[in-house]
Amino acid sequence: MNARQSPLLEVVDLVKTFPIAGAFGGRAGEMTAVDHVSFSIRRGGVYGLAGESGSGKSTIARMIMGLFQPTGGDVLLSGANITGTLGTRAHSRQVQMVFQNPGSSLNPRRTIGQSIAVPLEAHGHPRADRRRRISELLDMVQLPASFADRYPHELSGGQKQRVAIARALAVAPQLVVLDEPTSALDVSVQARVIELLTSLGRQLDLTYLFISHDLSLMRNFADEVGVLYRGRIVESGPTARVFEQPEHDYTRLLIASVPVISAEEEALRPTIPLIDGEIPTAEKLLALRESQRATEVPKRT
Amino acid sequence: MSDALLSVRDLSVEFTTYGRTQPVLHGVSLDVPARSHVALVGESGSGKTVTMKSIMGLLHMPPASISSGAILYDGRDLLTMPRRERLKLTGTDMSMVFQDPMSSLNPVFTIADQMSTILKYADRRLGRSRSRRERMQRVLEVLAQVRMREPERVARSYPIMLSGGMRQRVLIAMALLSEPRLLIADEPGTALDVTTQAQILKLLKDLVEERGLALLMITHNLGVVRETSDYVYVMHKGVVVEEAPTAELFAAPKVAYTRALIDAVPRLTGARPAERTEAAP
C-alpha cells in the first residue's frame, strides 16, 4: 500500500459518554454522545461529518483535538495510536482546528499578528523568523501582510475566518479539523473561503475533517461523508454515492429537507412519506420504517 | 398607484450616531398584493431587516429616521397616520413571525400566559374584549391550527419544555392569534436543524395557502425564497437591485449581483456554475 492511499487518520470504535448531573451533585445516569464511531480519512482527502444538532459531530472533533478524552476507542494518525497523547504539544503540531465563529475564536485584545504568533511561540518557532512566517501565512490566506498589526474588530467576518485558517496552518499541521467553518458567513463570502480551503488543501497536501450541517456545502467540498444520527454513523461512503443513492432513511430525510434553488437539485431529493400531512421528524420516520419492516415482507426500496 | 395590500414606496431610512448620519435604505419600493407570497432576500447589511422594522414600526427613532417615502397598508400611509391607528394594524391585521424561538419567548411565563397577553392587548387596541376563558379557547384553537397534537399540554408548558421546532410553531401561532391578513416572517427556521426547518416551512406554506394570507418572507437563504415565494425582491446595500417572479429570477437573473449571489450557493447536485470553475485555481 502506498502512502497516498493509506489513511492519515483512523478513528476506531470511538465512544464518549457524559454523566448526567442529578440532584445534590449526584449522578443521574449517563448519556452517550458518541456511540462506537469508526471512520478513516485518506491522506489529502476531505471527510465530511454531516449531522444535526446533538448528533455528536462536534464531540468527535473535540476528541480528535484532545479537548475531550474519549471514553473508549482509539485514534490513529499515520497508523500510530495517539489516543494516549491527544491534547499534547506533539499532537497539536499535527492536528489543528478552525472553529465556527471567527468573531469569538480570536482574542479581541491581540492583533492579528499576535494571535498567529501564539502557536508559533508554543512550538518554538525561532523568534527572529516569526514576523516573516506571519507575513507568509497571511499571504497564504490571501490577506495583506499589513493585517498583522490590525485588531479583529477591524476585519470582516470572512477576513477573520481567513486569519483563523492562517493560525491553524502556522505549525504546518497534517490534519485540519474544520468545525462549521463558514456557517457564520454570508453565502458569497462562504464560497470564497471554501475555494481558499480547497486550494490550500491541494497546495499544502492537507487532510481535512469537515464538520457541517449544510448538506449542499458538504456535497461540494467533501469527497467522503459520514452521516451522524444520535452519536452513530448511520451511513457513509463517497459523497456522490451517498447523495445520489442514499440508503438510510435518515440520510434520505436530511437530503429531502434541504431548501434548493434548481429543478435539477429538486429531482435529486428523495420523496419522504408525509405523516398526518406533515413532514415527519427523524424519530417518527425511523419508527414508521421499523414498524413497516416488522409487519411487511422484508424488501429494499 | 398599486392596489397592493402592503406597498412600500420609495422608502429611505438613515441612522444618526455620534452626530454622523448614515443612509441605510435608498428609495426602497416593494409591493405585497393580497394573498401573494413575496420574498425579500439579501445578505447581512443589505437592509432587509431595516425594511421589515420600518414596516412593523419597530425602528428605534432616534437613532433611525425615515427621510422620505411612504408605507401604504390597504391604501393608508402607516407613517403619517396617528400612532393609535397604526397600533390597530401592527400585530393584528399585519403580524410578524420572529426568527429566534429561543430569545423571543419569555422563559418565566407559560405559553398560554404569553399568548393570552398578546391577545388581550390586541383586543384592547381594537376596542374589543373577551373573557379570560374565551381567550384561552382562542389560544388552544390557534395552537391546534399550527398542528400541535396536544394544544392543552403545550399551552401549560414553559418555553424550555418545548423543542426548537415546537417553539417556532408557537411563534407562528402567536402571529395568527388575531387573524392577520399579512404575515411577515423574518428568517423562520434559520435557528433550527434542516429537517425541522423543512417542517416549519411546509407548515407556513400550508397555513398561508389555507387561510389566504399574504406572506412577506425575509431571508438570506435563496433556497427558502424558491420554496416559499412567487415573487422576489433582491436587496443589496440598501437598494432593491432586482425584482422578478421567483421562477424567472432563478432561471435568468438580470443583475450581476443577483447572478453572483445565485452562483455562490453550493448545489446539492455538486455541479458548479461555469464561472466559478474557471476562477478556481
From TrEMBL, chain A:
SUPFAM superfamilies: P-loop containing nucleoside triphosphate hydrolases (SSF52540). It is a peripheral membrane protein. Pfam families: ABC_tran, oligo_HPY. PROSITE patterns: ABC_TRANSPORTER_1, ABC_TRANSPORTER_2. One of its GO terms (cellular component) is plasma membrane. CDD domains: ABC_NikE_OppD_transporters. Residues 9-255 form the ABC transporter domain. SMART domains: AAA. This is ABC transporter ATP-binding protein. It is found in: Cell inner membrane.
Automatic annotation (TrEMBL), chain B:
Residues 8-262 form the ABC transporter domain. CDD domains: ABC_NikE_OppD_transporters. GO terms for molecular function: ATP binding; ATP hydrolysis activity. It comes from the Bacteria. It is a peripheral membrane protein. Pfam families: ABC_tran, oligo_HPY. It is found in: Cell inner membrane. The keyword Nucleotidyltransferase does not apply. Keywords: ATP-binding, Cell inner membrane, Cell membrane, Membrane, Nucleotide-binding, Translocase, Transport. One of its GO terms (biological process) is transmembrane transport. GO terms for cellular component: plasma membrane. Belongs to the ABC transporter superfamily. This is Dipeptide/oligopeptide/nickel ABC transporter ATP-binding protein. It comes from Pleomorphomonas carboxyditropha.
